[in-house]
Amino acid sequence: MEGVTVVDHPMVQHKLTLMRDKERSTKGFRQLLNEIGRLLCYEVTRDLPLEYVDIETPLTTMRAPRLAGKKLVFAPILRAGEGFLEGMLDLVPSARVAHIGIYRDPATLKAVEYYFKAPPDVAERLVILLDPMLATANSAVAAVERIKARGARDIRFVCLLAAPEGIKRLRETHPDVRIWTAAIDSHLNDHGYIVPGLGDAGDRMYGTK
Ligand code: URA
């Protein structure tokens, strides 16, 4: 599917299966989300440009590669997106963080914003939006619109599970935003949940209901 990367690495797939299991504990779920976050970060940054610089090792001089492109901003969509953040920051400790507080109204499934805070230089950075579940894409579309309004031009979206409906909506609304996901599930049910899915990611992370 154009613009969509399914991260089919065996470690990611194994951990995702553990997370789908309804018997997984809150602690286990959170831990796994963190671990997969790190692995997805590895994949979403795979094509970052490098430049060559002269350095001295203890033995000799050499030209060695280092990251050359834009600096990163991780932008979790609260609250479930927070589950990815620690793993991502483990890999890119110098990244900035934007918080986007959006919840979906359970009756209308529409996105409602309640908080937004982003670094001032977001326009010069690569923004990686984080939300474990790309379901209707209402929150994702609202988050992309919000961060674009702040000047962001280079945006990627990372999720754990995506529904075909959500991918279609996000890609049609924002074709410039590429998506990385660990799996594309079958469909959305009448309540906007991904099937077979893993339930409500936020509730499972935090032990709420
Ligand atoms: N959000 C979730 O947490 N789970 C779903 O299945 C859909 C949206």
UniProtKB/TrEMBL annotation:
Free-text cofactor note: Binds 1 Mg(2+) ion per subunit. The magnesium is bound as Mg-PRPP.
Keyword Transmembrane helix: no
Cofactor(s) essential for the protein: Mg(2+)
InterPro entries attached to this UniProt entry: PRTase-like, PRTase_dom, Upp_B, UPRT, UPRTase/APRTase
Keywords: Allosteric enzyme, Glycosyltransferase, GTP-binding, Magnesium, Nucleotide-binding, Transferase
EC number: 2.4.2.9
Domain Phosphoribosyltransferase: 6-208
Pfam family, one: UPRTase
SUPFAM superfamilies the UniProt entry points to: PRTase-like
UniProt-recorded Gene Ontology molecular function terms: uracil phosphoribosyltransferase activity
First-level EC class: transferase
Catalysed conversion reaction: UMP + diphosphate = 5-phospho-alpha-D-ribose 1-diphosphate + uracil
Transmembrane segments: none
Purpose: Catalyzes the conversion of uracil and 5-phospho-alpha-D-ribose 1-diphosphate (PRPP) to UMP and diphosphate.
NCBIfam families with a match to the protein in the record: PRK00129.1, upp
Family (UniProt): Belongs to the UPRTase family.
Name of protein: Uracil phosphoribosyltransferase
